[in-house]
Specification:
The protein is mainly α and 314 residues long. 59% of the residues lie in helices and 4% in strands. The chain contains 13 helices and 3 strands.
Length: 314
């Protein structure tokens, strides 16, 4: 078996991660996760082959299945194991195109069966309760309350991902045409409509934002970002998560709910109201319709409960 120096393996992985980031435009989260998976696989192969020299071409399906088994024994969830195999499949396809490698031991490996998880979401009455509470806090006119209402309204009105909201710039929001530009996975852009409630909340917040930034010296404060901290810095994703959690907790709704739950609520309520599945797919920025279809299960579940409660011969 031909040998490959450890440095060449690291170069292969580094070149692959650069390909994902620069050519395929994968998200930083995906690139980081795939890099972590490949690092684990490299360490596993070093141990599996007893310290002897090994090559990418020499890895077989038995080694791949053993790798999966080691991940599960170490407590990784089935989804994480499936992602690791997906990372290896993609890596071997990359090696085939760039190095002429003819084998892909990850191709024929059967993925662990994943349990279907229905996303947690708020029903319409809970959404109304959330916004009544946020509106009450915003009425004081204090920066934090006004900002939080605009943030929550934007999340629910557009169905944006957390990372998309955190990266939102003033230039991305058009309050005249009531729309916002989101940069999703793979740096793909999409235009999203803003509802009247979100537009009204954003206009009020922009006035508070201008008052916050006005007294700050030049070079202080992020004047590009939409959502800012009380010190004028762009809100980080973790800060946004903390804000949303605080509102859920205040209403006693925090169990099982996350910032992403507002995105789930957005999709579920659209489908409940008869929106076209493909239109919802575009709004969410899903590349595959099957990803969006999980929300139809949520809607059907809800309709079944209504039927059981309301139909005289259910």
């Amino acid at each position: 078996m031909p040998t490959a120096a450890p440095d060449s393996k690291h170069r292969d992985v580094a070149e692959f991660l650069t390909f994902l980031a620069k050519e395929r435009n994968d998200s930083p989260h995906t690139v980081k996760a795939y890099g972590r998976d490949l690092a684990l696989f490299t360490v596993f192969c070093d141990e599996y082959y007893g310290g002897a020299a090994w090559t990418w071409a020499g890895v077989d399906r038995l080694a791949m299945r053993s790798f999966m088994g080691s991940l599960q024994r170490n407590g990784l969830a089935k989804r994480s194991v499936a992602r690791a195999v997906s990372a290896l499949r993609t890596f071997y396809r990359f090696l085939s195109g760039r190095r002429g490698l003819e084998v892909n031991p990850a191709r024929g490996v059967r993925l662990p069966r994943l349990e279907k998880r229905l996303p947690a979401f708020l029903d319409r009455s809970q959404v109304e309760e959330l916004f009544r509470f946020a509106e009450t806090l915003a009425q004081s006119g204090e920066f934090q309350g006004v900002r939080d209402l605009a943030l929550l309204e934007t999340l629910y009105a557009t169905g944006m991902r957390l990372s998309e909201l955190a990266g939102l710039n003033l230039a991305d929001v058009d309050l005249v045409s009531d729309q916002a530009k989101a940069r999703g996975k793979g740096k793909k852009e999409r235009l999203l409509p803003l509802g009247s409630y979100a537009v009204r909340a954003l206009r009020r917040y922009y006035r508070a934002r201008d008052q916050l930034l006005g007294p700050l010296p030049a070079g202080k404060g992020d004047r590009r970002a939409v959502f800012l901290s009380a010190r004028g810095a762009r809100l980080a994703p973790r800060s946004i998560q903390a804000i949303v959690r605080r509102y859920f907790a205040a209403l006693g709704r925090e169990r099982g709910l996350t910032t992403h739950s507002l995105r789930h609520s957005f999709a579920t309520h659209l489908l409940d109201a008869g929106a076209d599945l493909r239109a919802v797919q575009e709004l969410l920025g899903h590349s595959s319709l099957s990803t969006t279809q999980v929300y139809t299960h949520t809607s059907v579940d809800r309709l079944k409960k209504v039927y059981q409660q309301a139909h005289p011969r259910a």
